[in-house]
Amino acid sequence: MLKADLAGVGVIGTGRAGLVHCKNFAENVPGARLISVCDADTGKAEQAARQFGVTAYNRTSDFLSDPALDAVVVATPTFTHAEVVQEAAAAGKAILCEKPLAVTEAEAESMAEAVEKNRVVFLMGFMRRFDQNFIRAREIIQRGDIGEPLMIKSTGKGPGLPPSWNLDISKSNGMLAEVNSHDFDSVRFLTGQDFRWVFAAARNNKCPQYAENYPDFYDTAIVTFGLSGKVMGSIDGACPADYGYDARVEVQGTDGVMFIGSIARKGIVIGSKEAGVVEEIVDSWRSLFKDAYLAEDRALIDCLIGGKEPPSRLEDGWKALQAVLASNRSIKNGVVEYL
Ligand SMILES: NC(=O)c1ccc[n+]([C@@H]2O[C@H](COP(=O)([O-])OP(=O)(O)OC[C@H]3O[C@@H](n4cnc5c(N)ncnc54)[C@H](O)[C@@H]3O)[C@@H](O)[C@H]2O)c1
């Protein structure tokens, strides 16, 4: 039950993802206001607090003890999600947890238990589930416009390397988790089917400087898979892709095909004698999914105040994690892994 008209929201982890949520809650989420930020790095917490005019904390327990805090966005590195989410649930706060859910299944289980025990709202940060193109694509599939889905190809590539804690696969589960979690979840979101087997391969093609300290590190990966229904497919990822942010999906059905996404930034086409016809490229997940992150943040408040069901659940994060873990096992063992 809310204590005030406006839900008090705090963001823990004021890095790349955290600042996107801070801006949304500070400016643009009806029924909510950003009241605090927390970061283990005091300087970063204070900088974000100054930027948004809110209170800064550097200890999770102090941050969570504010009675005015109703909801928490967890945007710390993946290997900290389990601990932070358990503390937030025990403090009775509604939670939006950034993807990936966790690093291990044991962590996922402890998070699920804490959320259930404390009966708190939990929204999984799969923003594609809030993106109008993905929502429409799912409706088109469900309406049967392309017949029964048979094959799906999902591409997820980022322009640069994510923060350095991702280099250590034991802390991050690597690029398939950090970047392609979204693809694993979109495949389930679009088809309504679960992963049954995966076969994956990966290489470090562009980052030889990390090979010695992080021998398992990979920057290029491909996963083929079969789902619980008829659908088979592939997920491919590369990071750094250098040319831009590339998130595209192709779905082939018995009666047609559908393409979601483009590397062209919509709206501007430049024509010149020298360059011909040129479109701008999508440069970042921040710009491509700007509206989706906002819709996701608004959904947290709809769940908290309006009692709506989360469109993206902890179980969805757990299923994506299982597919990522199976893919990493397949990379290591060179065999098909079953889920
Ligand atoms: N949905 C998306 O598209 C998307 C995009 C980027 C990142 N992410 C996810 O968001 C999370 C954060 O990623 P990022 O790229 O913003 O990382 P980042 O390294 O840029 O930021 C993480 C911040 O958390 C702080 N931190 C670390 N441990 C902490 C702790 N125990 N308590 C409080 N603060 C702590 C760090 O000091 C840092 O400021 C990851 O899980 C990542 O996968 C999601």
Helix-strand blueprint:
Layout: E1 7-12, H1 16-27, E2 32-38, H2 42-52, E3 55-57, H3 60-64, E4 71-74, H4 81-90, E5 94-98, H5 105-118, E6 122-125, H6 132-143, E7 149-157, H7 169-172, H8 174-178, H9 181-191, E8 195-203, E9 220-227, E10 232-238, E11 246-253, E12 257-260, E13 264-272, E14 276-281, H10 285-288, H11 290-306, H12 314-333, E15 337-338
Parallel strand pairs: 1-2, 1-4, 2-3, 4-5, 5-6, 7-10
Antiparallel strand pairs: 7-11, 8-9, 8-15, 9-10, 11-12, 13-14
Helix pairs in contact: 1-11, 4-5, 5-12, 6-9, 9-12
Number of helices: 12
How is the largest sheet built, in terms of strand order? 12-11-7-10-9-8-15
Low-confidence stretches: none
Biggest β-sheet, characterized?
7 strands, mixed
Quaternary structure classification: single chain
- In total, how many domains does the architecture comprise? 2
Total beta strands: 15
CATH class of the largest domain: Alpha Beta
SS-derived structural category: alpha/beta
